[in-house]
Design brief:
With 301 residues, chain A is mostly helical. Helix content of chain A is 74%, strand content 3%. Chain A has 2 domains: 46 residues; 237 residues, MetI-like (MetI-like fold), CATH 1.10.3720. In chain A, strands 1-2 form a two-stranded antiparallel ribbon. Chain B starts with 21 loop residues before the first helix and ends in a 5-residue tail after the last helix. Classes of the chains: A mainly alpha (301), B mainly alpha (303).
Chain lengths: 301, 303
């Protein structure tokens, strides 16, 4: 009896020990996540209702910061631009890696050449990508695209300084930089397709498109959805690319919400507006994140 | 005697997996489709390669050649003296050293903090682990929102009230809070059988001992994967290094690339500098490339 109690005590002690060592080991991570991610979000929301004195809250002013942001003459334009970024990234950036992955999976020649060359842009720093494309889009004869036009006998034309083209052009450069990473993810998912299903589809007389529709697509749907939402969220935050390539120009045509936030904070020193815009973006993204988790759950089930 | 001609073994006749297999390649239509796919992929590859090559060679052009009509793709002559001269004038070495310090710190924070978190969430699961897990993974999609609040956290650290701007520490700490890498580590540790750990525990090994003697030696593949993501990510990281380290003596390469090209450099020099900033990553990639695919598999994205 006593022995049993002792054993139970020892077990309890073991469980307690494990809990304590677990907490100790995870402590650095919890502290860092709290400090880097959660505390800023919380103080961001809290401070956005105050007027600031330097970096500390001074007077409670309710939603007046939000009013300032929402009534800014450029706000709607910027929101619309951001939607356009997302739209073009879905038109250009989303299908491309998937199509390339499906095609690449069929190739039997020069496979490693294709793998290396499509991954090369991924390892190039984002800033360098922006610069490469900024110079490629250069209006004069030094630009790569104008060089190509010249080869085909056309005159040089304007690129980033054309306000109707600037967003798709920036999206092209972003797609160029990152599509290799998504491509690898699709490729590795494609390896998991049950080959017997192809065989069965073939016996049932399914052509190439039949096989794509009834075997490949159902298998890829989950990953496609996840990466779709991931991409929407990432592009929604776009800041660096318009900053480096156009500084939001020409005439605000490439301003995004992220860049506006950055300008409020570090160019104009309007911290209150930056805080309020941050919270607005946070709310918009939370909706997307919520959808993401719903989709994720459905896929895991 | 009736002999059938032995079928020639080609890459086509041995392909049994995928949308198209050997039976498709036997038909004319199948071959045409394959040719179209090949050409399309070739085009994509060229679009990936050409801008990089163009930048790499254009840095050697002199200014008049850059704007010459008709334009030239390759420069008339490669003058490596220009590269050397430029290297010394801009003092590129200093920025490389700063980037290296940044990378080493970020790598340490990344592997230690996220690795331990992944281990605890996967193998120890103390009371409250689920809440912590939610807290970590929910952050994955919300980064980049809090610009000013995070900046305030760095220039006026809570409790200590010290200013961390101009120090590497904020960037290192940000690397230590990477939810995606926690996920990678957790998924990897999920694959280590519990019986290993139980056996060690019965032999009287403590949790820290188990981590040091069993987990760490087994984790080489995942550490490699996280390392390559961390190294390339830190090298490219721009926004926060720019805000924290910009215009100090500690500017890393990515920040220097932006500040110099947007202010003092001519276009040909910008290209030269862009090329210089790419080369180290190509070397890293050459060493680590085989781990990248493995990393994707480990992220659990597999369908």
């Amino acid at each position: 009896m006593q022995k049993n109690a002792k054993k139970g005590q020892g077990k309890l002690k073991g469980v307690l020990n494990r809990n304590i060592s677990g907490w100790v080991l995870i402590l650095p991570s919890v502290l860092l996540f709290t400090y880097i991610i959660w505390r800023p979000i919380i103080i961001g929301i809290a401070y956005s209702f105050f007027s600031l004195d330097g970096f500390s809250p001074a007077i409670f002013i309710g939603v007046s910061n939000y009013k300032d942001v929402l009534t800014d003459t450029n706000f709607l334009q910027t929101l619309w631009n951001t939607v356009q970024y997302v739209f073009w990234s879905l038109v250009i950036g989303f299908p491309l890696p998937f199509i390339c992955a499906v095609m690449m999976n069929e190739l039997v020649h020069c496979k490693s050449f294709f793998k290396i060359s499509t991954y090369l842009p991924v390892i190039i720093p984002g800033i360098a990508t922006c610069l490469i494309w900024k110079i490629a889009y250069m209006d004069g004869s030094g630009g790569l695209l104008n060089m190509v036009r010249y080869m085909f006998g056309a005159e040089a034309t304007t690129w980033l300084s054309n306000k109707d083209q600037v967003i798709p052009l920036i999206i092209i450069s972003m797609t160029w930089n990152t599509f290799g990473r998504t491509l690898v993810m699709y490729l590795s998912t494609l390896q998991g397709v049950n080959q017997e299903l192809y065989e069965a589809a073939r016996l049932d007389g399914a052509g190439l498109f039949g096989r794509i529709r009834y075997v490949l697509f159902p298998h890829m749907r989950g990953v496609l959805l996840l990466l779709l939402i991931n991409q929407i969220i990432a592009v929604f935050n776009v800041t660096e690319q318009p900053l480096v390539m156009t500084s939001g120009g020409p005439n605000g045509a490439s301003m995004s919400l992220g860049l506006t936030n950055y300008f409020y904070a570090f160019k104009y020193g309007q911290y209150e507006k930056s805080l309020a815009l941050g919270v607005i973006t946070f709310c918009l993204l939370s909706v997307l994140t919520f959808i993401y988790f719903m989709v994720d759950k459905r896929i895991n089930d | 005697m009736n002999t059938t001609k032995p079928k020639r073994v080609t890459k086509f006749s041995t392909k049994t997996n995928g949308l198209l297999n050997y039976s498709d390649f036997a038909t004319f239509k199948g071959k045409i489709i394959y040719a179209i796919i090949f050409l399309l992929m070739l085009t994509v590859s060229l679009i990936c390669l050409v801008p990089v090559i163009w930048v790499a060679v254009s840095g050697f052009k002199d200014v008049s050649e850059m704007y010459a009509i008709p334009p030239t793709f390759f420069p008339k002559h490669f003058d490596f003296g220009k590269l050397l001269d430029f290297w010394n004038r801009v003092n590129v070495f200093k920025y490389f050293k700063n980037s290296l310090i940044l990378i080493v710190g970020c790598l340490s924070f990344d592997i230690i903090a996220n690795g331990l978190a992944g281990y605890v969430l996967s193998r120890i699961k103390p009371v409250g682990a689920r809440v912590i897990e939610k807290m970590i993974f929910a952050s994955m999609l919300l980064s980049g929102v809090s610009l000013i609040p995070l900046y305030i956290s760095f220039v006026d650290v809570p409790f200590f009230h010290i200013n961390l701007s101009g120090s590497y520490l904020p960037i290192w700490m940000m690397a230590g809070a990477n939810a995606f890498n926690v996920l990678l580590f957790r998924n990897f540790f999920n694959g280590i059988p519990m019986s290993y750990l139980e056996a060690a525990r019965i032999d009287g090994c403590t949790d820290l001992g188990i981590f040091g003697r069993i987990i760490v030696p087994m984790s080489k593949p995942i550490i490699m994967v996280v390392s390559i993501f961390s190294i390339t990510g830190t090298w490219s990281n721009f926004m926060w290094p720019y805000l924290i380290l910009g215009s100090t003596e500690k500017e890393p390469v990515s920040v220097m690339l932006y500040t110099l090209t947007s202010t003092v450099l001519r276009d040909d020099e910008s290209m030269l500098l862009t090329m210089i900033s790419i080369v180290p990553m190509i070397i890293v990639y050459a060493f680590f490339s085989k781990y990248i695919i493995g990393g994707v598999n480990m992220s659990g994205l597999k369908g």
